[in-house]
Amino acid sequence: MNTVLTSVADSIGTITMNRAEKRNALSSELVTSLHEAFLQMSTDESVKVIVLTGAGSAFCAGADLTYLQRISQNSPLENLADSTALKNMFQSIVDCPKPVIAMVHGAAIAGGCGLATVCDIVIAGREKALFGYSEVRIGFIPAIVLVYLVRKIGDTQSRRLILTAENISPEEALRLGLITKVVDDGSLEEETWAMARSIAKNSGSAMAMSKMMLGAVQGMSMDAGLHYATVMNALARQTDDCKKGIESFLNSSKG
User: Fold this and answer.
1) Helix 240-254 / helix 204-216 crossing angle, nearest 10 deg
2) Which residues pair with 9 in a beta bridge?
3) What does the pLDDT profile of the chain (255 residues) look like in tens digits?
4) Is 172 considered catalytic here?
5) Is the CB of residue 116 less than 8 Å from the CB of residue 179?
6) Residue 244 C-beta-side C-alpha neighbours within 13 Å
7) Do residues 74 and 46 share a domain?
8) Is the domain of 180 the same as that of 215?
9) Residues 132 and 33 grouped into a single domain
10) In 43-135, which residue ranges form alpha helices assigned H by DSSP?
């Protein structure tokens, strides 16, 4: 059985984690399949926006127990290779030039919470969604996703989530800035597809450049950031989408 299912319709790509019987827990196979799926959709010109979700009752409940047992027995080099694969998978979502929406309908714990963290937009169901980094409870650490989390919600609340290992509600996740929107479970799919359809109307090149900038400016000084922004502003003016968009706007203004 494929650990990941993909489809494309109306400029919306869907990536579904397909281990419902394991609550979509991360295994080496699932990590590899997710990485490959995001790389493929990153270069698919028919895709403008991507929705990431999970089959069954959970979004992603962390690491598979068999996977955890295996990594505890691996050699240092094997674990380094495995950890690198995990990092590459997360980074393929961050680097994806298309906006990525996580549709969270159940537990997003440990690595599953990490998946939500690296997505551009997270929409969660109010009744069943749950977020948390549980790694320290079993003597592990959320090392890779910690880097993304601190940049997303800041140091104070990152320390709280990682060191307490507590699970938080969608409303609390929204308050902390971890997720984007909370909706009733019954309208989760409708709300997610509505947002995806709205985003799909935007310029692909403009969204790709904006995502690139959002990732780059966080580590820059004000002067460096403004210099970079000035260059990107000039480059954006030369894209076909910008030229066509301005022409269309001017024509509609005349009417």
Assistant:
1) 120
2) 12
3) 799 999 999 999 999 999 999 999 999 999 999 999 999 999 999 999 999 999 999 999 998 878 888 888 899 999 999 999 999 999 999 999 999 999 999 999 999 999 999 999 999 999 999 999 999 999 999 999 999 999 999 999 999 999 999 999 999 999 999 999 999 999 999 999 999 999 999 999 999 999 999 999 998 999 999 999 999 999 999 999 999 988 888 888 775
4) no
5) yes
6) 8
7) yes
8) no
9) yes
10) 65-73, 76-95, 111-118
Range(s) of the domain holding residue 94: 4-200
CATH number of residue 84's parent domain: 3.90.226.10
For 3, which DSSP code?
Answer: S
Would you say the pTM of this structure is higher than 0.85? Answer: yes
Q: How many CB atoms lie within 10 A of CB 25?
A: 25
Expressed in percent and rounded to 5, the helix, strand and coil fractions of the chain are 60, 15, 25
Long-range interactions of 238-241: CB distance < 8 A, separation 24+: 239/203, 239/205, 239/206, 239/209, 240/205, 241/203, 241/204, 241/205, 241/206
Are residues 177 and 97 part of one domain? Answer: yes
The verdict on 192 and 210 lying in the same domain is no
Of the candidates 165, 157, 160, the one whose C-alpha atom is nearest the C-alpha of residue 141 is 165
The answer on 52 and 10 residing in a single domain is yes
Q: Does residue 230 share a domain with residue 177? A: no
- Number of domains present in the structure of the chain: 2
Do 40 and 133 have their domain in common?
Answer: yes
> What CA–CA distances, in Å, run from 151 to 78, 170, 241, 250?
29, 20, 30, 39
Q: Give the active site residue among 36, 78, 135, 172.
A: 135
